[in-house]
Specification:
The relative contact order is 0.20. The chain is built from eleven helices and 14 strands. The strands form four sheets. Strands 3-2-1-12-13-14 form a six-stranded parallel sheet. The protein has a four-stranded parallel sheet with strand order 6-5-9-10, sandwiched between helices. Strands 4-11 form a two-stranded antiparallel ribbon. It is an alpha/beta fold and 347 residues long.
Length: 347
Amino acid sequence: MPTLMVVPTGIGCEVGGFAGDALPCARLLASASGCLITHPNVMNGAALYWSDPRLHYVEGFGLDRFATGEWALRPVRQHCIGLLLDAGIEPELAQRQIQVAEAARASLGLEIGPVMATDTPLQVTLQQGGSGASWGRVGRPDALLRAGERLREAGATAIAVVARFPDEDPQSEALAAYRTGGGVDALAGAEAVISHVLVRHLRIPCAHAPALRPLPLDPHLDPRAAAEEIGYTFLACVLVGLSRAPALIDAAEMRATDLMGEQLGAVIAPQGALGGEAVLACLERKVPLIAVANPSVLQVTPAALGLEERVLQVASYAEAAGMVIALREGLAPAALMRPVSPLKRLS
């Protein structure tokens, strides 16, 4: 039963707001559904990753288009991944990214290349919205798109982007809160901007890894943030995720064997983050929505949207997996609850 899992990036979710910490939940839901479509924020754990044919790695803009029915997903045996480097990355830090790509070729058998740097630095800046969610800007999106076009013309069928992000102050209270499990990922919002722009323009799978200088050792690190501390780059998980990411197919080019939004049997999202395009599109199409208690800085709840009667609310992703199994097996969720509500009579 194809199932969509959404954990919006940059909003500080307790599960999925850190370095790939929603991946165990995604693996469980993939087992329960047999087919889970999710996005890089859920799957990326810096140097850590997990490959499973039941997990479909779809960038957020493409995921929205899939949920609305504008695009379909087509299985790919292996992509040729172009590597796009920000010209603003220092030579030593850029070489670290190249070494990760070379290691993925030699040790994992991935097809990577060509490699290209932008013709001018991308000038990424980080910001925070009034809600506390992170976001950012790309000063030179034109340079990003030119490099992406060149890579596609050279044969790349997917693109991994590494942009130079501003180094965070090790003494920053916000960074300390994130590293100890109480804050918002300051990089995530800007990362989403970069991948969205590329996927919208090129309609091929793209994902982003930031280039940053390593931070000083922190003995009080939260386990959810630890994956970001064990290597020089965050690129490895992006390369693995993109290697078999589904191709993004326009509605006019769909085949009967493509995965389409109309096949979705459920969508799973945090209870306070139900305002995204993919979730609302699924609700419009009457796809069952499972809202998981997963606190963040947002409060777009079923009650706030007036959807309490249309949403299945659960306390954990483990409970969500049980609900997915019930839906997959054709069991009415109400039959699993106590007390069992009486039948409604129409006058």
